[in-house]
Write a structure and sequence with these properties.
This protein has about 260 residues and is an all-alpha fold. It has two domains: about 1-100, no CATH class; about 100-258, no CATH class. Helix content is about 70%, strand content about 0%. α1 packs across α3 (about 80-100) and α4 (about 105-125) runs antiparallel to α5. The radius of gyration is 19 Å and the shape is globular. It starts with a helix and ends with a helix.
């Protein structure tokens, strides 16, 4: 392998590892923030027996595998969301690094992915997307998107408000079944994607939610009117849009032009 290729490979490994450790921290955020607990103190511990975890138990993904998904002390199950969110964060960091070479744009996307993954975690653990995440996240993502040149300022601001107001409208007509936390999160999504791709991500999210919801209902895993976390479906729609969005949007526009 040429030297530049070797260095690039090492850089990607480093980014993946950093992403996994950030995902581990986001797991802490997802569990503690909805419970109004400090994300710093006490140190990482088992939520069941409260035993402080040792460094070897804090290695992303690998520790969960070595422990076979159970606490070393009380043997209670460790939720699978921990390695899933760690792997997801690492994958999104690597995806951004592979497709974006301009460092400020990379950082803007990484911050956005951190907000999205943390929101997935809070929604899964508490069915909430706390304001302490969405309000600062909206301001930071909007500012970083414009300053890094991810989108022109006008497009970013328009996308943020179009997506936010669309979700507020859905919240009203659904009589609260669509939470306002989702709407606040979509302010950031619209800011970094713009109006067209932001709305496209919502279409994919709705399709994902409908597919999973109907499947769970058919399997008897979901009762009538039982709510499920929607942010994981939002994340699915956002990731599909990040990977395929421009291609599908251009194909749709070409179809309309005929």
């Amino acid at each position: 392998m040429p030297e530049s290729g070797a260095l690039q490979g090492l850089q990607m490994i480093f980014i993946g590892v950093i992403g996994a450790f950030i995902g581990s921290f986001l797991n802490v955020v997802a569990y503690r923030v909805p419970r109004h607990e400090s994300i710093v103190f006490p140190s990482s511990h088992c939520p069941d027996c409260h035993h402080a975890l040792q460094p070897w138990e804090l290695v992303p993904v690998l520790s969960w595998l070595m422990l076979r998904g159970r606490c070393h002390y009380c043997h209670r199950p460790i939720a699978v969301r921990y390695p899933v969110l760690e792997l997801l964060t690492a994958g999104l960091f690597l995806f951004t690094a592979y497709h974006t070479t301009y460092l400020p744009a990379r950082i803007a996307w990484w911050v956005f992915w951190m907000l999205l993954v943390a929101s997935v975690g809070t929604d899964v653990t508490s069915m909430r997307v706390p304001d302490v995440l969405t309000y600062p996240g909206a301001v930071i993502v909007l500012l970083m998107t414009g300053m890094a040149g991810v989108l022109p300022w006008g497009t970013s601001i328009l996308g943020a408000f179009v997506c936010f107001l669309l979700l507020v409208f859905i919240h009203i007509i659904s009589r609260g079944n669509m939470g306002l936390g989702d709407a606040k999160l979509y302010f950031s999504i619209g800011a970094i994607f713009g109006p067209a791709l932001g709305v496209e991500s919502l279409i994919f999210a709705s399709a994902s939610g409908a597919l999973i919801g109907l499947s769970m209902r058919a399997l008897g895993k979901l009762q009538p009117r039982q709510k499920i976390p929607f942010v994981p479906h939002i994340a699915t729609g956002v990731i599909l849009t990040a990977v395929f969005g421009h291609t599908w949007l251009q194909a749709y526009l070409r179809l309309l032009s005929h």
